[in-house]
Amino acid sequence: MTNESSKSTRRQRKPLPLPVSIAMIVIAVALVVAVSIGNIYANKYSDLISVYFNQPTSKVVSATGETTEHFTSDYANDDEREKALATVGADIVREGATLLKNEGDALPLAAKSKISVFGQSSVNPVYGGGGAGSIDTSSAETLLDGLKADGFDINPTLVDFYENGAGKDYRRTSMDAYGEGEFAVNEVPADKYTDEVTGSFDEYGDAAVVVIGREGSESQDLPTGKLATGYTYLQLDDNERDMIAMAEQHFDTVVVLLNTVNPMEIGDLESDDKVDAVLWIGSLGQTGADAVGELLNGTVAPSGHLTDTYAYDSLGAPSIANSGSYSIANSSEMFATSYMAYAEGIYVGYRYYETRYEDVVLGADGVGDYDYTKAVQYPFGYGLSYTDFTWSDYSLKETDGGYDVTVTVSNTGDAAGKDVVEVYMQSPYTDYDREHGIEKSAIELVGYAKTGLLEAGDSETVTIHIDKESMKTYDADGEGTYIVDDGDYYFAAASDAHTALNNILSAKGKSTADGMDEDGDAAFAGKVHVGAQDTRTYAKSMATGTKITNQFTDVDLRSYDGSFTYLSRSDWTGTWPKTYESGSWTAPDEFVDALKIDTEQTEPESAPVTNSQDANYGKLNVSMLMDTDYDDDAWDALIEQMSVTELDQLVRIGGYATKSVDSTQLPATVDKDGPAGISSTLVGGENGMGYPSEIVLAATWNDDLAEKFGKAIGEDSINLGVAVWYAPACNIHRSPYGGRMFEYFSEDSMLSGAMTAGVVAGAASKGVIATVKHFALNDQETNRMGLAVFANEQTVREIYLKPFEMAVRDGGASAMMASMNRIGSRWTGGHKGLMTSTLRDEWGFKGFVVTDQASYNVFAYEDMREGLEAGTDLWLNTDAQLWKLSNADMTDGVVANMQRAAKHISYAISRSNAMNGLSANSKIVKVTPLWRWGMYALDGVVTVSAIALVGVAILHIVRRRRTAATVLAVLPADNTSGKPDMK
C-alpha cells in the first residue's frame, strides 16, 4: 500500500461516537477528583496510615561510635523471644485459673485420660474481649489442641459434631465495639446430639469436660434483663443445663470449665452433687490453652484466687439500681444527655457483702433482712488447690512507717502448689464517721503475697508490709482531707475476704451463736489501737508534701440535689439505692449551664517565648536531657526552642502516633492499644503477643508475674517500634455486667492498683510509655461518651482513683488516658481538680495525659482549650485539620498551656525506647514512607492517564467536527437528504 493510500485510509477512519468521547472526559475528571480526595485524606490521616502500614516517617543518623541503644531485648533472637513471651501468657493462666469446686478430689484427672469435651465453646473458646482489648486469634492455640498436647485423648466424634455436624450452627455471640450484634449464648440443644455422638461417650468416658463461655466488649455492657432464653446472660440457660445433665447421665466424672470474663451465677453448679469440679479459666490469650491441660492433669496445681465476689444473684448488688442508661431531660449539649449516680458509695463488691454481714453479727440497727449465706457463693479472694496448706505463727509487728504481718505456710498435702496469703484491715466505724458521712467497710484488702512453689512437706514464711497510710480515710464533710480515726484497727490474714472477717469477729469474741456462718480463728487477727484522731499526718501528700483538700465537691450529686443520699451502713434499709429520678432527671439550671465547654484560659504574666535559643544553654535537643530532672530549667529552655506550629501539631495530632519535632529533635512515636498485648485491631500494622485478659492476671495474685507481663510487653514494644502502649486499664468492676470487665483487674481498688503498678514498672524497664486508662470513673460502657458520673469524694478517692494513684506512686507511670465520661458536669480531661490538683500536685505525676478517642467532630466536648487549661496534654486525634484553632484563639494562655503539655510529652518520651538510636550528637531525618511514594506514583499514573483520556476524547471530537464539515462541503446546495450525491 502506498503512503498516499495509507493516508487516505487514516483519513477515512471514523471518529469515536460523541457519547464515548464525553464518557472518556467524565472518567478522566472522576479519576482526578478521586485521587484529589484521596490525597486530601492521606494528608489528614498521614500518621495513621503510616502506622497501619507499619512504615517509618523518620530515621536517625547517629555519630560514629556512640552507644545509642538505651533499651534492649533480653533475648538473642526472635525465636527465643517469642517462646519466652508465649510462656508468660501460659503462666498467667497457670497461676490465674481458680479452682472453685473439687468434690472427692475429682481433679486432677489421670494422665492420658480419654475425655469428651462438651460445649460449642470447646471449639470456639473465649480468648479475650472485643474492641481495644482484643487480640489476634488467628495463631492462637485452640483449647482442644492444648488438651491434646498435655496428653488427653479427645473424643473425635464429639469434636466433629461441633465443628462439622449440627453443632456447627450454634455459636456464642456478643455485641461488638460498634454496637453490632447481640449477646446470646446459643448453646447446642440436647436434641441435636445424634446417636452416633452419644454412642461415642463410652469409649471416651473417663471424664466429661464441659466448657461454658461468656465474653464482653468495648462500648457495650452486658444486658441485665432476661434474654430470649428466659435467663440473663450471666446465668446458665436451659440448653446449658441440659448439656450438663447429659454429661452427668453418661459420665461418672463431670468437670466444668468457666471460660468466662464476668462472674456468673453458678449456684446450680455448687449444689449439683453430680458436678464434681468447677475450674474458672478466664480468657486464654494466644497461648493459655496449653496451661488448661496442665491444670486438668495435675502438672500444675491451681493457685488463682477470685478478683470478684461471686453472688448467687448478680442483680442483688447495690450498684445495679443505678447501672445502665439514664437521661438528663433538659440538656441539649452534645454527649451531655446522660448521667449515672454511684449511689452505693464505697460499697462495691465485697465491701458491701462483708460489711452488711458484720452488721448482722453485731446486731446493728437498720441492717434489714440479710443472709450472707444466701447472698454470696464464693467470696472475694477465694480459691482452692489440689493440696492442703496449713498456716501458723501469725504475727503483727510495728515497723518504720507501718506494720509487718508474718505467716508461715506449710504444704501438708500430697501435691506441689502455691498459696496466697491475703491481709485485710478493719477500721473503726466511729460516731464521728456517722456524723460526717464517712463510710467504713468491715474489711478492706491492704496487702497480699503469693508463696513460691511448695513441694509436699515444705514451708515458707511470708511477710507482708502494710503502710500506715493504709489506715487513712477521706473526710470530705468534716476536715476536708484525709484523717486517721481513733479506735481499734484489726489486721487479719486469710485465704479470702470472708474468712478474714470471721477471724476479726472471732478476735472480738463473736461466734456462730451471734449469727456468724462459721467460727473464725482469732489467732490470725491482730489489733492496733489509735488513741486520738489524727487530722494532720495525711492532710498533706506523702508524695509531694502538697496540702490535700476537697477536689470533687462538684462530682457529688448532693451539690445539685440536697435530698440525695448515698448508701450507709448506719441504715442499710433506709439508704438502699433506688434508681435516681427513675432514669430521667430534670437537672437544675446550675448543672445544665455547667455542662457547657469552658474555654477560658489563664493568661501568663508575659508572652510565651517561642522559636528561641537560651543563651545559658545554647542549642538543646531531647537526647541531652534524657537524664535531666523534670524540674531542671533546661527543660523550659528546650521547649522554648519550639515554634507555635510545632507546639500545635505535637499537642493536637496525637492519635496512635506523636509528631517528631525538628527544633528539639524529639522523635516521633507509634502508639497502640491494648491491655492484653500490643494490638493491630483498631489501626492495623503488626501485633504483639496476645495475652489472657487483665482479670486473669489479677487472679494470679502474683506481683512478680504482673511485672513480668509488663516486661513482656516491653519486648514486643522494642521489636515492633511501638513506644506508647494504651494500657494497662484499671477501672473498677463496679457491676458484674460491665462490658469491659475483662479489660480491668478487679472489684477491689488495692488489688487493681498493685497489679497496675507492677505492669507499669515492668513495661517501663523496657522503655514503654504505659498509658494507664481510663482516667477516671469510666466503669460502665453504656453512654460512656459524655456520661455525667456522680459520686462523693470519699468514694472517688478510695475506690476509683486509688488504682491510678498506685500506678503513679508505686509504678512510676509516665502517661494517663483521660476517659470519655464526665465527672459531675465536666469532661474528665477538662477537670482541673482531677488532672492537675490530684494527679500532679498530690501524686507527683510528671508525664502526659492523652485523651481517649478524639479523631471525629462528635467528640467536640473533649475541647482542646478546656483540656489544656485543666492539664490534659495530648489529643488522640488522627485528623490533621481537626481541633485547629484560629489565630485569634491561639492566645498567650493557649500557647503557654501547649508549652507545658509539650514538656510533659517530651519528658515522657525522653525516658522511653523511642530514644533508641538517638544521642546528643545524632539527628532525626524525616523520610517519606513507602505508601507516600505509592501515592505519588498513583498520582502520576492517574494524571498521565487523565491527560491521555482527555486528549484522545478531544481529538475525536475535533475529528467528528471536521468530518461533519467535510460532508457538508461536498453536498450540493439542493441536496436535502443529508447523504452525499452518488451519481
UniProtKB/TrEMBL annotation:
Keywords in alphabetical order: Hydrolase, Membrane, Transmembrane, Transmembrane helix
Domain Fibronectin type III-like: 419-497
Record bears the keyword Transmembrane: yes
One GO-annotated biological process of the protein: carbohydrate metabolic process
Recorded superkingdom: Bacteria
Segment forming the signal sequence: none
InterPro entries (UniProt xref): Cellulose_deg_GH3 (IPR050288), Fn3-like (IPR026891), GH (IPR017853), Glyco_hydro_3_C (IPR002772), Glyco_hydro_3_C_sf (IPR036881), Glyco_hydro_3_N (IPR001764), Glyco_hydro_3_N_sf (IPR036962), Ig-like_fold (IPR013783)
SUPFAM superfamilies: (Trans)glycosidases (SSF51445), Beta-D-glucan exohydrolase, C-terminal domain (SSF52279)
Transmembrane segments: 20-42, 933-958
A UniProt-annotated Pfam family: Glyco_hydro_3
Entry keyword annotation includes Transmembrane: yes
GO terms, molecular function: hydrolase activity, hydrolyzing O-glycosyl compounds
Family note: Belongs to the glycosyl hydrolase 3 family.
Name this polypeptide is given: Beta-glucosidase
Organism: Bifidobacterium myosotis
Higher taxonomy: Bacteria, Bacillati, Actinomycetota, Actinomycetes, Bifidobacteriales
